[in-house]
Protein 1
Amino acid sequence: MGGIERSAHVVWRGGLDRGSGTVSARSGAVEELPVTWTSRVERPDGRTSPEELIAGAHAACYAMAFSNVLNEAGNPPDQLDVEAVVSAELGDEGLRVTSSVLDVTGRVPGMDAAEFERLAQEGERSCPVSNALRGNVDIRVNARLEE
């Protein structure tokens, strides 16, 4: 398989503090999501931010990677619910993404909690978005198996 490319496009108008923009995925799946500096560092008020988009990408990627790990272990999941919380800090050097915490709850027939936790960590290590962030962003996984 050759290289895979995906792209997004942003239109930004104005300066940072009072400007605004929209972000769209070239696939057409996401169109003209509003983004502003205020939505990034204060209240979202219905607008997104790069950090929220990273959280979405991380959660989706991790869900796919973890489901693959579970499947390869002979226990495909009935369902995985993944929430990613991306944190950033505004300091002297500007805004910096500092962490991404993945909270996963799963229904996996025939699996015990210890094995679910072990494979949850393995799934994180095989997630391409985790691997892109690793070394620059603290990544944690909290895993809970539903009974």
Protein 2
Amino acid sequence: MNTVLITGASGFVGQNLIKYLNSQDLILKSFPLREVPQPYNVQDVNSLIHLAGKAHDLNKVSSPEQYYEVNFELTKTLYDAFLRSNSKKFIFISSVKAAVDQVNSVLKENDIPNPKTHYGKSKLMAEEYIQSQPLLQGKSYYILRPCMIHGPGNKGNLNLLYKLISKGIPYPLAAFENKRSFLSIENLCFIIKEIIERDDIPSGVYNIADDVPLSTNEVIDFIAESRGKEARIFSLNKSFVSSLARLGDLLKLPLNTERLQKLTESYIVSNDKIKKALGKPLPISSKEGLMNTLESFSKK
């Protein structure tokens, strides 16, 4: 019987994943880490999906120790429990930020990691620990590095952008040309389901992204299309916008330097390795996944 144990089930990814896997007739168990005493017992489950973690704090109020305690030490403890158990598959949701914070061309799995933040460094430490431990026969590990995930319940920069465009506020950053990879929650759930159900996908590190990267200007057009409106896009001088963002740092405004970077940077992720391992296409396109997310925003 294919039983799946999930940590971090109450989060954005967890809630969507549980709904998806329930539709696939899998037996699911959630694992409330704060309520379960150590040593953790992960016996008699086929797959352990480790979603729980300390997310990147854009407000910079988290201490460095929190990242290493949750993202590294907790993962280490769970993986050790997995190795002692009769469970077969350990699926760790890491992040592309464990590799690099900025991408010059296209990020691939064999690029040398060089994270700059405590978030990225703590995720990389967990990855390296998993890869350093000998595996018994019949066990597998999967380190998934998703890029920016979106879907119902997502409250990140995409949601903020949607609210601004929906109010008719012009988008002033068209002068910044970029391309970035996104990941729809549907495609992520599909990949996890394939890993759970199949035994022909090798252990390893996999970047997870939709097929086609999108520019922010394209995303603006899709938001306007989902609202039945014309996109209002302006090309303000880059230096002027950068000055406004620095002012936003001082006055705690919605547009600050970090958010400006998030909206305008290029970050393209190759998904060739996971698609080759799956041997089949992802179920939905980049635009279709984004439109599904935007439709969920409109129902709030």
Protein 3
Amino acid sequence: MTEAQFAVFRATAEEGYARQIADSGATSWQDAQDKAAADYARLLPDGLATAEHHLWHAYDGETSVGVLWLHIAPKATGSEAYVYDIAVDEGLRRSGYGRAIMRAAEEECRGRGVVSIGLNVFAQNTAARRLYEQEGYELTSLQMRKRLT
């Protein structure tokens, strides 16, 4: 990912993250925006140069089809990766690109000696949940809420 691509990614990904937070019902739109901005500032303080964070654009030939953001860090049991973001451009979704990006991430991680990959998915994102389950990701925690009003 280039610096110019990162600037676009940061703005659109942060807004998308805020939208998912708000859509989950966890908080107001303003609070979701504030949380997203704070999370991105904390996680990527040096932008593309942030240690242990890797951001890529995915291409099909010359056409950019999506992005991937991985954090890879050493742990006691071996290096672990965390997918902070995977996104396929809106007009190209449901075309196999998400699966291809996930598989490319796995190959990159294997090449780096990573022993596991984790991620978070919001409950309302059923298409992503289905993809991750098909790719062998297992449920590791579950948060629930009951609305009283």
